[in-house]
């Protein structure tokens, strides 16, 4: 399982003095891009190929508060994926410094061709990274995002 550390910064806080809900989504995206960069698919490669991840649904569950300047561990796991990689479900978990689970973000998405504005199957290098993300865990199979008529 991939993990990274982050800090709950000033801009991550809400009026109640704990990490705001959209900060969890932002840090989830950061962890995902760090994973791809660490597995031979850096951000410039997404730009070069004119593709990007698109999230269709996020579910956030909260368990414990995270406060300003707390160090947090963010994990990333592949939960489900279509065989062609065109659709996926990723899970990020957020742990406080004391090891307690603070939140879980489960995101369902796919890969977008930025020129055609259509969902696509990822190129082989990106699909390989996704498969690495799923190693060591049971990954459910999702239906493809691509229609049977698509080239």
- Residue share in helix: 10-25%
Please state the average pLDDT score: 94
Please state the structural category: alpha+beta
Termini gap: 34 Å
CATH hierarchy: architecture: Roll
Percent of residues in β-strands = 35-45%
Order of helices and strands: EHHEEEEEHE
CATH superfamily: Hotdog Thioesterase
GO molecular function: hydrolase activity
Keywords: Hydrolase
Protein name: Acyl-CoA thioester hydrolase
Pfam families: 4HBT_2
Structure description:
Pfam families: 4HBT_2 (PF13279). One of its GO terms (molecular function) is hydrolase activity. The chain is globular. It has one domain (2-142): Thiol Ester Dehydrase, Chain A (Roll), CATH 3.10.129. It has helices spanning 21-38, 43-49, 124-134, and strands at residues 2-7, 51-62, 71-82, 87-95, 101-113, 118-120, 140-142. Helices cover 24% and strands 38% of the residues. 25% of the residues are buried.
Describe the structure using short key phrases.
24% helix, 151 residues, alpha+beta, Acyl-CoA thioester hydrolase, hydrolase activity, single chain, Thiol Ester Dehydrase, Chain A, HotDog_dom_sf, hydrolase
């Amino acid at each position: 399982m991939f993990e990274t550390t982050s800090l709950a910064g000033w801009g991550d806080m809400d009026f109640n003095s704990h990490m705001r809900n959209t900060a969890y989504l932002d840090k989830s995206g950061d962890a995902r891009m760090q994973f791809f960069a660490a597995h031979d698919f850096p951000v410039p490669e997404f730009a070069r190929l004119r593709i990007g991840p698109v999230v269709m649904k996020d579910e956030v569950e909260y368990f414990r508060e995270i406060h300003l300047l707390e160090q947090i561990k963010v994990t990333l796991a592949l939960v489900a994926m279509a065989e062609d990689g065109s659709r996926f479900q990723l899970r990020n978990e957020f742990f406080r410094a004391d090891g307690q689970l603070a939140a879980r973000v489960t995101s369902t998405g796919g890969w977008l061709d930025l020129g055609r504005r259509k969902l696509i199957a990822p190129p082989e290098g990106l699909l390989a990274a996704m498969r690495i993300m799923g190693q060591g865990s049971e990954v459910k199979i999702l239906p493809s995002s691509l229609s049977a008529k698509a080239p």
